[in-house]
Please model this.
Amino acid sequence: MIALQRTPLLMIVSAPSGAGKTTLCDRLVAEFDNVTYSVSCTTRQPREGEIDGVSYHFLPPDAFQERVDAGEFLEHAVVHGNQYGTLKESVQASLQSGRDVLMDIDVQGAAQIRDYVRHGQDNEWIRDIYADIFIAPPSMEDLQLRLWGRGKDDEAVIARRLERAREELERWRDYQYVIVNDRIEDSYSTLRSILLAERQRVIRLH
Ligand code: 5GP
Model:
């Protein structure tokens, strides 16, 4: 039997808010201890229970902009009026520790990374390890019910999120994989299958 080693994966997951992405991703990280989240930076305020450096690196706008100017972000975007971004160095450090990295980022950030994977200079480190997945709700009606159901947001916020969801949903064809999250058990089983299959790609083994 030959002993194969594999290069860690960089898995990007995007979804409109309310599609169930956080539940699915949290479950993947809980089941596989060699899968870790990439911790993003954001200018939004911490929510109750969120810890700086764990949930996000919470930065004031000027500190965020300094990092943009210094070219430290692999990608960054404005989402719901706040800045979000992934530090290149922190992703590379996680990959070097041998773990697969899961990035929960919006469609704009995913598009920037895809562009870098295809055309970026010095992109060798990311080219062969990248995979992306879009998680879609079964319908807009279903998404609306879920956003109402979780009771986190008021009417105006929900209306804005639905409007944005409509735009985001149009981007699903840009991704390598799509999961329509009808039943959470089925969707989770598909997500973990994608991880397991991606790990076996010959290009990532040596
Ligand atoms: P929340 O503020 O609810 O945690 O996240 C709001 C949205 O921002 C989610 O759709 C999430 O995927 C996206 N997001 C979180 N971190 C990043 C990031 O580093 N880059 C980008 N482009 N989007 C992010």
Observations:
- The beta strands are 10-14, 35-37, 41-42, 57-58, 73-79, 82-87, 100-104, 130-136, 177-180.
- The longest strand covers residues 73-79.
- The chain is about 40% helix and 20% strand.
